[in-house]
């Protein structure tokens, strides 16, 4: 199973902005309870969408510049990027089916 790759300011450009496939970004923090609930769901989705969507995690405590740049004020925030632009976003924990729905709708447009 593919895993969501940790990303920070150093590899953001290569992993997200220049990705050939859409990128699902999980903005999270270690201390965030809802983030810990969402984490395993993101890992499952990474396996299910392997090759179609890249999955990355941004620890907002370690990469607060990225969180600020994308106006992430609440976590978890899950955003889908395509060609460097946010094409879908969900703030707060949600069900796996709602994330799948977000990804599937975005892939139809991508």
What does this structure look like?
- The protein is α/β, with parallel strands linked by helices and 110 residues long.
- 38% of the residues lie in helices and 25% in strands.
- The protein is built from four helices and five strands.
- It has a five-stranded mixed β-sheet.
- Strand 4 and strand 5 (85-91) form a beta hairpin.
- The longest helix is centred in the middle third of the chain and has 16 residues, at 33-48.
- The chain is globular and about 35 Å long.
Keywords:
110 residues, alpha/beta, Glutaredoxin, five-stranded mixed sheet, 4 helices, 38% helix, globular
At the fourth level of CATH, the homologous superfamily is: Glutaredoxin
Main beta sheet strand tally, sense and closure:
5 strands, mixed
Low-confidence stretches: none
CA(first)-CA(last) distance: 24 Å
CATH architecture assignment name: 3-Layer(aba) Sandwich
Bin the helical content. Answer: 25-40%
Can you give the mean pLDDT?
94
CATH topology grouping: Glutaredoxin
β-strand number: 5
Q: How many helix segments?
A: 4
Strand order of the largest sheet: 1-3-2-4-5
**Bulk shape:** globular
H and E string: EHEHEHEEH
Q: Beta fraction of the residues?
A: 15-25%
Number of domains: 1
Structural class by SSE content: alpha/beta
Q: What's the alpha carbon Rg, rounded to whole Å? A: 12 Å
Which CATH C-level class is it? Alpha Beta
């Amino acid at each position: 199973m593919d895993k969501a790759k940790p990303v920070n300011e150093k590899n953001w450009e290569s992993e997200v902005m220049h990705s050939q496939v859409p990128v699902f970004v999980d903005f999270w923090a270690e201390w965030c309870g809802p983030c810990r609930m969402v984490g395993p769901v993101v890992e499952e989705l990474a396996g299910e969408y392997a090759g179609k969507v890249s999955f990355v995690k941004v620890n907002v405590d370690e990469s607060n510049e990225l969180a600020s740049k994308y106006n992430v004020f609440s976590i978890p925030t899950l955003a889908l990027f395509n060609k460097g632009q946010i094409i879908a976003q969900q703030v707060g924990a949600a069900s796996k089916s709602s994330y799948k729905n977000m990804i599937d709708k975005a892939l139809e447009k991508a």
